[in-house]
Amino acid sequence: MADVTDATTARRAPTPDDAARLADSDQSGPMLAADGRPLKQSLQRALRREKLRALMLIAPLLLFVLVTFIAPIADMLFRSVENQIVGNTLPRTVEALADWNDDAEELPPEPVFRALFFDLFLAAEAKAHTRLGSRLNYETTGISSLFRSSGRRMDDVAEPFQDVLEQADPQFGDGAFWYRLMTGEGDADTSLLNDQRERLAALTREGMGGDIGFAPSAEIAALLPRAAREYSAFALFTARIDNDVVAEEDPWESVYVALALDLQDGGAERVQSYAGPGADALQAAAANADQLPVVDFREAFIEVDDGWGDRTNWETMKTYSPPFTSGYFLNSVDLQLTADGVEAREENQRIYVMLFQRTMFMSLVITFSCILLGYPVAWLLANLPMRTANLLMILVLLPFWTSLLVRTSAWKVLLQQQGVINDTLVWLGIVSDGGRLALINNQLGTIIAMTHILLPFMILPLYSVMKTIPPTYLRAAKSLGATNWTAFWRVYFPNSVPGIGAGSILVFILSIGYYITPELVGGTTGVFISNRIAYHISSSLNWGLAAALGTILLAAVLALYWVYDRMVGIDNVKLGG
Amino acid sequence: MTQQAPHDDFVVFDRVQKSYDGEILVVKDLNLSIARGEFLTMLGPSGSGKTTCLMMLAGFETATHGDIRLGGNAINNIPPHKRGIGMVFQNYALFPHMTVAENLSFPLEVRNMGKAEREGKITRALDMVQMGAFGGRRPAQLSGGQQQRIALARALVFEPELVLMDEPLGALDKQLRETLQFEITRLAHNLGITVVYVTHDQTEALTMSDRVAVFDDGRIQQLASPDTLYERPENSFVAQFIGENNTLSGTVVELADGKATVRLDSGDVIATTAVNVSAAGDRTLVSVRPERVEYNVERMKPDAFRLQAEVLEFIYMGDIYRTRVRVAGNDDFIIKTRNAPDQRRLKPGETIEIGWLPEDCRALDA
């Protein structure tokens, strides 16, 4: 034994490695470079420039990938759980709903409806109520129209208050008067204004900073908290969204309601001692406070739309009020989030699990078809003389040079009931005219077309791996007594597995997210989850659900990749060389 | 081993021809008999047809014409895996996905051998090539020399009577090659197997073989034992291909009794041994081995033929001196002399007298 190793190793020439080891054994400390610095440090310094240059070379691509790939994926992951729209549009209602015990068999209490009035009024001014309606409609159908119709009619709810106040003092019909009243004297209440800035910024998604030429006085804010709040919101909206001068505009109806509620709520006594601008009008209004209508907002809302009397809608609003929700993900797996926790969806609404399963199953079938069809071709390519192989390679690559749409359309022409294949079969008498085969707009069509389209992705890695398997392996196996089949199965095939692995990963991952071909030839039974995602992105506009579905798809691919790595080892995947 | 075909013809090529494209014959009319237990080397430059012959014997190429017989039976139509011939390839062709032991087990498994029997044979085969401790390794973890030992063990483990080797040492460095050359011959003789060995390295061919078949242009130029091949080449190709050789061209003036008198193109007339000339007037290439030329007058035999020569180059090579001289108009005439205490070292430009015996000087085809 010893002489074998001797022959191969002992007589070799000394290498730099030996020198290093020798030097190392002589010194106890770290290796030093010629100038006395530690060798490691010296080496790092020398390599830094090279690394920097390498980084510069990839910097444009890195940036491009970050901006166009990583960032959108991160955004998608975020969207799949994000649910700030409810809290941004109806902040007070959400706050008030927190106290509502949704187990009890009754509607939320009056304060919730009051809060809803102010929230919805502002949302309607900002035209944000329909957006919220659409969002909640994903969870409970009917909410969209509920919000749309109610938003229009908030003015009606406010009307009685406005009439009484203007009768008490006509100045209340004048925008300039309101401006004077609210600006008041003395210190301004900037925190109130800033609160409203934040609220409006979240609602309208527009900048609300800067001077708007108005700030509520602290005195008024203390006397009439609701009115000051609503007027501030009005002022911000007027200045920033409508770009008008606050003092010249008549306030919203909601301000009248706020003032009326303030007066009814003890404000009538508080204004008696007030001496600031508009004190006379306020006191006149306070004197008439008993004439102000006492409105039951719950009744009013139910009158506007029956939907507000339906507990289900309120439960939905409460369930989806937190800024983050698992609702989209639950929807993605045919569950739903209700007031009572997670529940299965109704039988006729379950589609996503089935779609995921179908996508997986069909991708597997497509991958296996690609292996079956691609393996012999790749073998031929790797073993033919160069010139013939090149010609064959062009044929393999030809589909790459044709538009995907053209290829898919060609399959439509071939596969349809009155298409080339069916016509030929009928002409040959293999099938009867009435019994033409359904080859398209079903799973079969998708599998045929996608196998064809993805075949090169299987052949190319297979080919490049097979190219590296020396033909002598097969000869050696045969000379050792193996039949053609044994030689192939025990020697050639195991060496081509890395190619199969690479091709399969490529084909499977491509097909699992394929969209255009299933869309065109899949009909209803041959579509993938990606088609559903596209539907939610472009038609139903339920981006949250689309994001959740996409995230699940991404996770599935990563999980499969991990499993593959554990089973085959990703080092075994070769795309060439 | 003699030049006559042995009686026990184990492998026979009978008028074998091979063409790949239907236009050019790569192997032209090959006739060859190999005895049981013989170590035969096919030697030749690349493209001479030697590997094609080996592949036909292994069954990976089919003969275009003629018969190949193994142990008396024609094997033209027997597929490679039924021929039971062991084979060693230049690039080892060890299966990378199997361990060394699994590689050796492969030929036994396909022969449906039991596990215990297999293990015994594998251990013996590995010990035979002194690689007993390496059974669990993968081929990629071994050095080139170790891989070739394993390849050798794999070709021998199923105990074939005939083993073919296709330039098995071509990829190894010189030292390793020499060690393995010796080992392969030792194994072949100990086991009594017949070996057909292909190489383009003439040293390898001379040191290992019982007989060497020198191939050129699809034909065997000479089939003989190494010493015969070196000392009595039958034509100028063999003389040139085997070892170093000096040639002087000339015309035969007289041909009698196995002796030929040749007038060199420079005008000198020399006595030679006639080998491959048929009549006076033939053009001929006279061949003299560099080590048979003497320039030390005191050592020259009395009947040596002498010529004037001019030293062009003198190289000290340790054990020998290598001198290039101009003689009879030939600038590339090499003389090799042993480094001995009484040997004179020459200087370029010096004019000396050189000489050789007529027996060492062979008149071959031009």
From TrEMBL, chain A:
<keyword id="KW-1133">Transmembrane helix</keyword>
<keyword id="KW-1003">Cell membrane</keyword>
<feature type="transmembrane region" description="Helical">
    <location>
        <begin position="54"/>
        <end position="74"/>
    </location>
</feature>
<feature type="transmembrane region" description="Helical">
    <location>
        <begin position="543"/>
        <end position="564"/>
    </location>
</feature>
<feature type="transmembrane region" description="Helical">
    <location>
        <begin position="360"/>
        <end position="382"/>
    </location>
</feature>
<feature type="compositionally biased region" description="Low complexity">
    <location>
        <begin position="1"/>
        <end position="13"/>
    </location>
</feature>
<feature type="domain" description="ABC transmembrane type-1">
    <location>
        <begin position="356"/>
        <end position="564"/>
    </location>
</feature>
<dbReference type="GO" id="GO:0005886">
    <property type="term" value="C:plasma membrane"/>
</dbReference>
<feature type="transmembrane region" description="Helical">
    <location>
        <begin position="389"/>
        <end position="406"/>
    </location>
</feature>
<feature type="compositionally biased region" description="Basic and acidic residues">
    <location>
        <begin position="14"/>
        <end position="24"/>
    </location>
</feature>
<keyword id="KW-0813">Transport</keyword>
<dbReference type="InterPro" id="IPR035906">
    <property type="entry name" value="MetI-like_sf"/>
</dbReference>
<comment type="similarity">
    <text>Belongs to the binding-protein-dependent transport system permease family. CysTW subfamily.</text>
</comment>
<feature type="transmembrane region" description="Helical">
    <location>
        <begin position="497"/>
        <end position="516"/>
    </location>
</feature>
<dbReference type="Pfam" id="PF00528">
    <property type="entry name" value="BPD_transp_1"/>
</dbReference>
<dbReference type="InterPro" id="IPR000515">
    <property type="entry name" value="MetI-like"/>
</dbReference>
<protein>
    <submittedName>
        <fullName>ABC transporter permease subunit</fullName>
    </submittedName>
</protein>
<feature type="region of interest" description="Disordered">
    <location>
        <begin position="1"/>
        <end position="35"/>
    </location>
</feature>
<dbReference type="GO" id="GO:0055085">
    <property type="term" value="P:transmembrane transport"/>
</dbReference>
<keyword id="KW-0472">Membrane</keyword>
<keyword id="KW-0812">Transmembrane</keyword>
<feature type="transmembrane region" description="Helical">
    <location>
        <begin position="444"/>
        <end position="465"/>
    </location>
</feature>
